[in-house]
Amino acid sequence: MTAGMPGRVEIKRALVEALGRAAVLEEGLLRQHADRLAEYVLYLAEVNDQINLVSRRTASLGDLLTRHLGDSLRGVRLLPRPGPRRLVLVDVGSGGGFPALPLLLVRPDIDGWLFESMTKKARFLTEVVERLALTSTIVNARFPSPIPMNEIPPIDILTTRAVADAGQLVRAAQPWLTKDASALLWTTRRLFEVAVQESGMHRWAFHETPGTEQAGIAALERST
């Protein structure tokens, strides 16, 4: 166990309290998935001592639960509703797994494809997916990578976090997007305006994160 990091039971308790207070998920959904979310946070904290998955400045339990996990889960309400078929989510530059893994943990009807170019981080993501029995594939390559992209089904949701050229990534993904696809970009209001211009998407909105002046989630939609 990581020095200074509590055990899984304590993490689960702190997780339910912190995320419940922030109202990032409805209570029933939060309690339903709290065990696996806590397992993910604990394992990330352990591995972060060897691999810089998240900045050491934001690797305390409080930051992991609010600045990383909670921030990612704010995207749940922006996801398409479950339908007759499984949805496909592609995450670009997944790093430690934010925002994709928290979203996939609470939405088991979504298949994930996580692109991470750094081999050590891709190996960590593979281990997490196996531990948590997620229906996800880790692609150790930059996006878009010709060979893996040929294997991916049409994309319903594209996500990325803290990537400066997010709009360009959305435009690069256009050939693989479904007609009603959406892109969720964890970014700032200033970069949101740039992303809108570069993305080629038809509708957009910016959902500001409470307690911040600029940070939020840009939701871009392909449908007119």
Describe the structure.
The chain has 224 residues and is α/β, with parallel strands linked by helices. It has two domains: 8-71, no CATH class; 83-221, Rossmann fold. The protein has eight helices and seven strands, in the order αααβαβαβαβαβαββ. It has a seven-stranded mixed sheet with strand order 3-2-1-4-5-7-6, sandwiched between helices. It starts with 7 loop residues before the first helix and ends with a strand.
Short description:
The chain has eight helices and seven strands; from the N terminus they run H-H-H-E-H-E-H-E-H-E-H-E-H-E-E.
Instruction: Let me know the average pLDDT.
Output: 93
Q: How many domains make up the coordinates?
A: 2
CATH architecture annotation of the largest domain: 3-Layer(aba) Sandwich
As an assembly, this protein is single chain
Q: Which sheet architecture does the biggest sheet show?
A: 7 strands, mixed
Order of helix and strand elements from N to C terminus = HHHEHEHEHEHEHEE
What structural class do helix, strand and pairing data support?
alpha/beta
Q: Would you count the extended β strands for me?
A: 7
Task: From the 3D structure, determine the CATH topology of the largest domain.
Answer: Rossmann fold
Write the layout of secondary structure elements.
Layout: H1 8-22, H2 27-47, H3 61-73, E1 87-92, H4 100-106, E2 110-115, H5 119-131, E3 136-139, H6 146-151, E4 155-161, H7 166-173, E5 177-188, H8 189-199, E6 203-208, E7 215-221
Parallel strand pairs: 1-2, 1-4, 2-3, 4-5
Antiparallel strand pairs: 5-7, 6-7
Looking at this protein, list some descriptive labels:
seven-stranded mixed sheet; 42% helix; 224 residues; Rossmann fold; 2 domains; alpha/beta
